[in-house]
Design a protein that fits this description.
208 residues, alpha+beta, tt1808, chain A, six-stranded mixed sheet, five-stranded antiparallel sheet, 4 helices, 13 strands
């Protein structure tokens, strides 16, 4: 298991006030994947972490703006090069199976074509980690909660993670627990071995 203390957060983010996600009280038993599936039409954003149901408020228009811009750029590039699929609208990926299931829902995700399940196996939450997970970080998330997500993605096999911080106009990239990079507004995101050749200027992402 990857330890949270091995996933440092840049100090620029430590002073940003945030609140933990709301943990929905358990009933007579832990929450399950079936329970999470039943909440598909709820207005809130939920994730399941080892029996705990985490509830977030709906994404703000600002969060949606950056998720849409990045997903559009990724989607066009991935389609043009026939690499796989880009997913938005917080798709749920089962990073760990029950009984201690972990279902995370990144703002944007990419899965290589070789790993996309057959059509007859695409219902429900896919039991795989996305190759790329993008999280647009909101004021409702603490550094601890964000790092827990990073830990879960990396432990499940996600090869590239981008954490987008709109207020600071930076992106934090994880490829391994010890391989962390901070992009500023003058930089370009790079897909590396996960999305070969992809580059995206952060000036475009953070414009206006």
């Amino acid at each position: 298991m990857i330890g949270l203390d091995t996933l440092p957060t840049p100090t620029i983010l430590d002073s940003v006030p945030r609140a933990e996600p709301v943990i929905v009280p358990r009933r007579s038993r832990p929450w399950t994947v079936a329970d999470l599936s039943a909440l598909a039409d709820d207005e809130h954003h939920y994730e399941l972490v080892r029996g705990d149901l985490l509830m977030m408020s709906p994404a703000s228009p600002v969060q949606g703006r950056y998720a849409e811009r990045l997903s559009r750029a990724l989607g066009q590039y991935v389609e043009d090069h026939e690499l796989g699929e880009v997913y938005t609208a917080e798709p749920g990926f089962m990073l760990q199976a029950e009984p201690d299931a972990i279902v995370r829902a990144p703002d944007v995700a990419y899965v290589h074509s070789d790993r996309i399940p057959p059509v007859d196996q695409q219902a429900g939450f896919w039991p795989l980690a996305p190759d790329l997970a993008v999280e647009v970080i909101s004021p409702s998330e603490t550094a601890t909660a964000v790092q827990a997500k990073v830990q879960d993605y990396l432990a499940a096999g996600t090869r590239l993670i981008w954490l987008v911080y709109p207020d600071n106009k930076i992106v934090i990239e994880y490829q391994q627990p010890s391989q962390i990079r901070q992009y500023g507004i003058e930089d370009r995101l790079e897909g590396g071995a996960v999305i070969p050749g992809f580059q995206y200027a952060l000036q475009r992402l953070f414009r206006g």
